[in-house]
Design a protein that fits this description.
Blueprint: H1 3-22, H2 30-37, H3 41-47, H4 51-69, H5 81-96, H6 98-103, H7 111-131, H8 143-164, H9 172-182
Helix pairs in contact: 1-2, 1-4, 4-5, 4-7, 5-9, 7-8, 8-9
């Protein structure tokens, strides 16, 4: 990314976040966004096809950075501290952009933003389960089972975030508690392998 492209992207990031905090992003026009960012329409279309797509892309980048900072949702084999740290970072991201997410809720989040959250959470959980197959509940036998369990958990996490966003003041610790309390215990961290645990690593890779 050359310096000129980066500068225009940074200007568009600031502008779309500011405008989307003021009103629904679906009401933000390209003309208005270009004026706010002080870029031309041609420059805008080098970055995105619409204000909504631009917003979704920028938020997705932030979410992927969070996932990269928490590559293993479990901090150790016996605690859930790592998962809590990841969930807390996710809640902090939503709180930092509360106005944007609220303006994109009707009451459910618009598809691009909801899809971003689900995809990142789902991907993190899938990767976590593949690294630690011993955490999975009895009966999980295939990669499809992993994907199904992760998809279910990711959809629930986003649903919980949507409800949490309804609070007048967002308490990040409360958001973390809500998601952790609703999460099946097996996600909280790999447990010490026992004789009864399946050796699923070979069958799921």
């Amino acid at each position: 990314m050359d310096s000129r492209f980066r500068r225009s992207r940074d200007a568009l990031r600031v502008a779309v976040y500011r405008l989307a905090e003021q009103r629904p992003v679906t009401d933000v026009t390209v003309t208005e966004l270009c004026r706010e960012a002080e870029v031309t329409r041609d420059t805008f279309y080098r970055h995105s096809s619409s204000p909504l797509d631009l917003l979704a892309t920028l938020l997705r980048e932030e979410l992927e950075n969070i996932a990269g900072d928490h590559p293993d949702l479990s901090g150790s084999s016996r605690t859930d501290s790592g998962m809590r740290a990841g969930v807390r970072a996710l809640c902090q991201h939503v709180a930092d952009h509360a106005g944007v997410y609220r303006n994109a809720s009707t009451p459910h989040l618009l598809s691009p933003l909801r899809d971003n959250l689900e995809a990142v959470v789902r991907g993190s959980l899938e990767a976590h389960a593949r690294r630690h197959p011993g955490i999975l509940p009895a009966g999980a036998q295939s990669d499809g089972d992993i994907r199904g369990l992760a998809a279910y958990a990711a959809a629930g996490t986003v649903g919980a975030l949507e409800v949490w966003l309804e609070a007048e003041v967002l308490d990040v610790e409360r958001g973390e508690w809500l998601i952790m309390a609703a999460s099946p215990a097996f996600w909280h961290g790999p447990q010490e392998d026992t004789e009864g645990s399946r050796s699923t690593e070979a069958t799921m890779t």
